Automatic annotation (TrEMBL):
Belongs to the pyrroline-5-carboxylate reductase family. GO terms for molecular function: pyrroline-5-carboxylate reductase activity. One of its GO terms (cellular component) is cytoplasm. Its main location: cytoplasm. Coiled coil: none annotated. Pfam families: F420_oxidored (PF03807), P5CR_dimer (PF14748). It comes from Couchioplanes caeruleus subsp. caeruleus. Residues 159-262 form the Pyrroline-5-carboxylate reductase dimerisation domain. This is Pyrroline-5-carboxylate reductase. The keyword Metal-binding does not apply. Keywords: Amino-acid biosynthesis, Cytoplasm, NADP, Oxidoreductase, Proline biosynthesis. It is an enzyme of class 1 (oxidoreductase).
Amino acid sequence: MTVVAVLGAGKIGELVLSGLLRAGWPADKLLVTTRRSTRGEELHERYGIRAVDNATAVAEADVLAIAVKPQDAGALLAEIGATVPAGKLIVSLCAGLPTSFFAARLPEGTPVVRVMTNTPALVDEAMTAISAGPHATGDHLAVAEEMFKPLGATIRVPESQQDAVTALSGSGPAYFYLLVEAMVDAGILLGLPRQVAHDLIVQTAIGSAVMLRDSGEHPVKLREAVTSPAGTTISAIRELENHGVRAALLAALEAARDRAREIAAQSA
Ligand SMILES: NC(=O)C1=CN([C@@H]2O[C@H](COP(=O)(O)OP(=O)(O)OC[C@H]3O[C@@H](n4cnc5c(N)ncnc54)[C@H](OP(=O)(O)O)[C@@H]3O)[C@@H](O)[C@H]2O)C=CC1
Ligand SMILES: O=C(O)[C@@H]1CCC=N1
């Protein structure tokens, strides 16, 4: 069975490892590397997986999943790049960094796959977009899918779309959490106890998300069904439109996409 090493197990690396274990990936087929040894020990105690150094991971794993911050990827590749044996699959989880960044720092012919996942991996509801980079074949994409399917949904996209994907689904959970936070505060403003406001909004978010996924209806239709003539909802929607929420979202996601491009330019 494929041995996967997660290089740089912070938040996302741990989510990937724990998801693979939940899906039945044997602990002895997983390796983890960390910068701080205490973090490696913590992950070993929590999951029973072996914490090793980057050189050992390169030597022993079939797949190297790079989960360091994009700003740390250059240093990591300077350390391991030349030692990566031919044919080892590199799966990058780094926002912004194109596969060419990795190819330039790895032996010629090394297959590179770029993925963008998100934190709902914690509850097996991630959205992961997968792209083939240099030398990545259908088989390599299938390996990446085998890794990420247990964590939620997967989709294949051309790499040219990955910065937009990052802006939408990679960063996306943060936008929903911000919205929930603001709506709970609105509940406080209206005099509800915080816990009651929290419970109302969280269940409303879950119900709305499940309807979006399962009803097959367009979001406009779902919204219209809530919006009664001369009712309460349209009064709120007028305020959202007056405050430019729609325009703010367009600008915000464009800014996230632009930041991904900037990270790539600064790392080149
Ligand atoms: N957070 C998110 O929602 C998402 C993040 N991503 C991407 O995932 C990647 C990781 O993000 P995230 O988990 O949030 O970041 P974290 O900072 O939580 O994790 C990165 C980890 O890499 C470790 N690290 C750095 N350099 C090395 C090295 N040379 N060898 C071994 N370990 C190293 C860091 O160690 P130390 O703790 O000592 O600094 C840290 O624990 C990023 O590239 C990000 O763009 C993608 C999708 C979503
Ligand atoms: O904020 C970030 O840069 C990372 C990438 C996508 C989500 N978090």
